[in-house]
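explain this:

___
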Amino acid sequence: MIKNFMILGCSMSLKVHFLHSHLDYFPENLGEASEEQGERFHQDIKEMKRRYQGKWNLSMIADYCWILQRDNPCKVHKRKSDKKTFEVKKNVTIRTCNFLPILNNYLN
């Protein structure tokens, strides 16, 4: 496994990368890891194992980096998505598609 990480350009195991990323959630004055943070770390490792099922490749590393960006509670994102917005866009697309046959008849 270490050889595979070296091929991908990683000098340490993925679990160490995960642990390193979770250290950002600790306050500076906290001397020891809390049980809650340790549990979050183990849940994230479990989710990555479930998602990739042993298929470790470059795409997985990139996805892992995006997970860190998305799940950072301190970061404020400009764009928020919710189901209502998606449904509105979906309905607009459907209405637009209904005009395509009429437009094709008009152009031909």
User: Anything to note?
Assistant: The radius of gyration is 22 Å. Helices lie at 2-8, 14-22, 35-52, 58-70, 83-98, 100-107. The CA atoms of residues 5 and 63 lie 15 Å apart.
